Automatic annotation (TrEMBL), chain A:
Entry keyword set: Signal
Superkingdom as given in the UniProt entry: Bacteria
InterPro entries, sorted: Beta-lactam/transpept, Beta-lactam/transpept-like, PBPA_dimer, PCN-bd_Tpept
Key word tRNA-binding present: no
Protein name as catalogued: Peptidoglycan glycosyltransferase
Domain Penicillin binding protein A dimerisation: residue ranges: 52-134
Domain called Penicillin-binding protein transpeptidase: residue spans: 155-480
Residues annotated as signal peptide: 1-23
């Protein structure tokens, strides 16, 4: 019997070995696969187990976290939610994250390995570090000025610092409070349905994710291309421009809003926004050079990230001459985000340099220690410095005596360009009012801010919609906010 | 493996009661430490009941120790500390899960049941002077066991299995008690009939080894087995069915030494498994879950219990998340009972889980050792049977929740929430203490004197197959 008891004991030992080996398989060998299974809620629970890091504007958090005591413990809160929504996006327990909440998620949620003091530290402690902060480049007052300037009208404002590419304001209107999406309750679900069904699309980031026909503001690009190409050498020399201008190869005649454009020199044509002159100028410059300049300004670049993706602005590269003529005045297939037009204006202000825009100055640990900085951003020449100088002259004239006088700031040098963009089938839509500009304060060495404003106001009467009338005052308020801060 | 059937050496073994006491103190301290660790992790403070809990467990353990010291002074010194530690850890894990399930306070109830279990332990150790007394009550045991097994059929099914009875708010699982009674019966019956079972009967095939005993010998035991299996099929409880069948086969093998029994056992087991798996939807779904633990996830219905359990174990990794810091509560309603091991796996990690497995392994090993050291076949079979119950039960449930074998609803000995289970396991440990006391007692000590119970066949007079040693060896 002894032998058989021993056999039975050996059998039990075998069972024990099987259990141990299987535990090793589940807990070590295959644990990663189990951990990564999307149905495993542990990652989600850990993610919300601690307060999320904050997004800072001028050193002040515009976000917060609220302890709910639920399984997913912390919910996102927002200070001035609608004001910063196009920057922060939302962080919802159900619907995920967008914009900076999304792009900075690893840092904010504490998952970024850079947040831990030592490599492998978290593997040892099984903890995750406190969420880090994302410090934005935004200027609080500029952001507020833009938001208040739009006053709930549909539209967007983008402002950048020409010498660096820092985004100073990014506003979209109408907006929404991202806090309503934070939780995972029925209220969040209702808010989600309501916001998505809203015809005004409050969750659309019009400043960075929506493209508009830039209209006359695109004439900045056309003028720069013409000057760079030597098509125009003297701003004040008369051009050979008929008005109305028959689009090449068609019988369609292009007209102007005002008189005095026939054979107008570039300066006058720019200041009074003559469509005929610029349509012909684009054709004279040619598709290749127009394309090269537009792309140098950032058009057709599908990889712009600030750090969230920006909708690519487009300049069609296969056009006949009539289409090129229309494209040169910012119509036909030409489309631009407000941010892109702010970059165009910034390039003029900064001697022709285009700086890649960015919204995150640096990321920090909870205590404030820097994790990563924006670093040096690539820049490239969109036009010759001499061209940029002439363009500044033209833009200053627009504000001093042309269509953009509403943007003038006493004691500051301001350059601008208005635009009233036709759109819709047969241009039936209510036009968009544009204004792009830059400003240099009295004591500044170089321009401090470049702004693009677009107002798409369905409520206004068509005749009232002009860039100078509706958009320029908003741009001025933003520029003033930056210059005085 | 030419080990003699001879029992332990006659020399006086050290009793080692002092070591037992130190180990018990260590076990209680470890449990209290775990309790405090849970509180610190969850609330940042030592839980208010820590002192009371430690005192309660300590008093229980000391009383048990006193009983052993007075009535079983030669017993194995490891058995009781292991039981105390496992029970203590079980209370910690249940308390820890209580914190996540508001409105459900299972730990105090478990402490009450543990107290009952220790009381039964003390009663058995004190009242049962010699395990051989049990031999007389073999048929009483089997009748009681079958009655207990049959009882739940009269009650409504709970979670698909008909193994509980509910009286006045308490739910009892009679099958838990039945397994000890059946082990006693098998031991007594096989001890009395092992010669006939091993030796008599006709050969089948050409193999000398594969011999079937006569129907007269085999009849009663097969009848009882069929009855128990029949009852279990009615109760839809694959786990207990497997346990009883495995116990039966192991004890039959140990008693008769017939490898043929293993073959027949495995054959019957596979046939039974296939038949039950086909016919019984409850069991069939368990097998399906085992083969495809993530099927419900792919079907978009979320993870099932087994998947959640695997997630828990995986989350623990090597060293665990720490007590109180895991999320095994996601498993759902059986987290404190069937799946209690997942909490251990997640919060104590592979290291803690392995330690638990090794504790069980040690408990089983000490049981087998007692069996090896005893001289009477009944005691040997009883010790083997009791140790096998623990071994099989741990394997079936631990293998189930870690995805090694299909899941069967069973209670992890001492660890899981469940009164019947805790009480039964204390009874098993009490019986092991009793047999180990006999095994380690000096041969001519007074209690080893012949009782009026039928003595086992004197060693050395058995015919060849039942003797492990060479018959020519001088005895």
């Amino acid at each position: 019997m002894t032998r058989h008891i021993r056999h039975a004991a050996a059998f039990c030992a075998l069972l024990l070995v099987a259990l141990l080996a299987n535990a090793l398989r589940v807990q070590v060998v295959q644990s990663e696969a189990y951990d990564d299974n999307p149905a495993n809620r542990r990652e989600t629970i850990a993610r919300y187990a601690q307060p999320r890091g904050d997004i800072l504007v001028d050193g002040v958090p515009v976000t917060g976290s609220r302890d709910t005591g639920e399984q997913l413990r912390y919910e996102r809160t927002y200070r001035d939610g609608p004001l910063y929504a196009p920057v922060t996006g939302f962080a919802s327990q159900v619907y995920g994250t967008t914009f900076l909440e999304h792009a900075g998620d690893d840092v904010l949620s504490g998952a970024d390995p850079l947040l831990s003091p030592f490599p492998l530290w978290n593997d040892v402690t099984h903890g995750r570090p406190a969420g880090g902060n994302v410090v934005t480049t935004l200027n609080r007052r500029a952001q507020q000025a833009a938001y208040e300037g739009l006053g709930g009208r549909k539209g967007a404002v983008a402002a950048v610092e020409p010498s660096t590419g820092r985004v100073l304001a990014l506003v979209s209107s109408p907006s929404y409070d991202p806090a309503v999406l934070s939780g995972n309750d029925a209220a969040a679900e209702r808010a989600w349905v309501r916001l998505n069904g809203d015809p005004d699309k409050p969750m659309l980031n019009r400043a960075a994710r929506q493209t508009y026909p830039p209209g006359s503001t695109f004439k900045v690009v056309t003028a720069a291309a013409a000057l760079d190409a030597g098509v125009i050498t003297d701003l004040d020399a008369a051009t050979d421009s008929p008005a109305p201008y028959r689009l090449p190869g068609t019988t369609t005649g292009l007209t102007n809003e005002g008189p005095g454009c026939e054979d107008a020199p570039l300066r006058d044509a720019f200041v009074w926004s003559c469509n005929t002159v610029f349509a012909k100028l684009g054709v004279d410059t040619g598709l290749a050079r127009m394309t090269r300049t537009a792309q140098a300004f950032g058009f057709n670049d599908v990889n712009v990230r600030i750090p969230f993706a920006v909708a690519p602005s487009t300049f069609d590269t296969s056009l006949d001459r009539a289409q090129l003529a229309l494209s040169s005045i910012g119509q036909f297939n030409t489309r631009a985000t407000p941010l892109q037009m702010a970059m165009v204006s910034a390039a003029v202000a900064d001697g022709g340099q285009v700086r890649t825009p960015y919204l995150v100055e640096r990321t920090t640990r909870q205590g404030g220690a820097t994790v990563a900085t924006a670093g040096s951003r690539p820049s490239h020449q969109a036009m010759a410095p001499s061209t940029a100088r002439l363009m500044r002259e033209l833009m200053v004239d627009v504000v001093r005596e042309g269509t953009g006088t509403n943007a003038a700031i006493p004691g500051a040098v301001v350059g601008g360009k208005t635009g009233t963009a036709q759109h819709g089938l047969g241009n039936a839509g209510i036009p968009y009012a544009w204004f792009v500009s830059w400003a240099r304060g009295e004591r500044d060495m170089e321009p401090r801010v470049a702004v693009a404003v677009v107002v798409e106001d369905g409520s206004a009467r068509r005749g009232d919609i002009t860039g100078g009338g509706m958009a320029a005052p908003i741009a001025r308020a933003v520029m003033e906010a930056v210059l005085t801060s | 493996m030419a080990a003699a059937d001879a029992p332990a050496p006659a020399a006086l073994l050290p009793r080692r009661r002092g070591i037992e006491l130190s180990l018990i103190v260590l076990a209680v301290l470890l449990s209290v430490y775990g309790y405090c660790a849970v509180g610190l992790a969850k609330d940042g403070t030592v839980p208010p009941g820590a002192a009371g809990y430690g005192a309660g467990l300590g008093v229980l353990a000391l009383l048990a120790h006193l009983a052993v010291r007075l009535r079983a002074p030669c017993a194995d010194p490891l058995l009781l500390p292991i039981a105390v530690l496992l029970n203590g850890m079980g209370l910690v894990l249940i308390y820890r899960l209580d914190l996540e399930t508001p409105g459900d306070r299972a730990a105090p109830t478990q402490l009450v049941w543990s107290t009952l279990g220790v009381a039964l332990f003390i009663l058995v150790v004190a009242a049962l002077r010699d395990h051989r007394l049990l031999q007389r009550y073999a048929y009483v045991c089997v009748v009681a066991a079958l009655a207990l097994l049959a009882l739940p059929i009269l009650f409504p099914a709970v979670n698909g299995a008909r193994i509980w009875i509910r009286i006045a708010g308490f739910s009892i699982q009679p099958g838990e008690f039945a397994k000890v009674l059946l082990a006693v019966f098998f031991a007594a019956y096989l001890a009395a009939n092992r010669t006939a079972l091993a030796y008599a009967g006709r050969k089948i095939w050409r193999f000398e080894r594969l011999q079937l005993p006569t129907g007269r010998v085999l009849g009663p035991i097969v009848t009882i087995w069929l009855l128990s299996v029949g009852v279990l099929v009615l109760e839809r409880d694959l786990g207990t069915s497997l346990l009883f069948f495995g116990l039966f086969v192991v004890m039959l093998y140990v008693a008769t030494g017939r490898t043929g029994w293993i073959a027949v056992g495995l054959l019957l087991a596979s046939l039974g498994a296939v038949a039950v798996g086909r016919l019984e939807p409850h069991v069939h779904s368990r097998v399906e879950d085992w083969l495809h633990p993530f099927a419900t996830i792919e079907a978009g219905e979320g993870p099932n219990q087994l998947a959640q359990s695997l997630f828990s174990f995986a989350a623990g990794g090597m060293s665990g998340t720490g007590l109180g810091l895991g999320h095994s509560v996601l498993i759902g309603f059986a987290a404190k009972s069937d799946f209690i091991l997942a909490t251990a796996g997640e919060e104590l990690g592979l290291l803690g889980l392995s330690a638990l497995f090794l504790l069980y392994g040690l408990l089983v090993e000490r049981g087998y050792r007692a069996g090896l050291s005893l001289r009477d076949p009944f005691g040997r079979l009883l010790a083997t049977g009791l140790a096998s119950i623990v071994a099989l039960q741990v394997f079936v449930i631990a293998g189930g929740v870690t995805g090694l074998i299909p899941l069967t609803g069973m209670a992890m000995p001492f660890l899981a929430q469940g009164g019947s289970s805790v009480v039964t396991n204390w009874a098993i440990v009490a019986l092991l203490i009793r047999v180990s006391d006999s095994a380690r007692r000096p041969r001519h000590a007074p209690q080893d004197a012949p009782l009026d119970a039928p003595r086992p066949t004197p060693h050395g007079t058995l015919p060849d197959p039942l003797r492990d040693e060479d018959p020519r060896r001088p005895g």
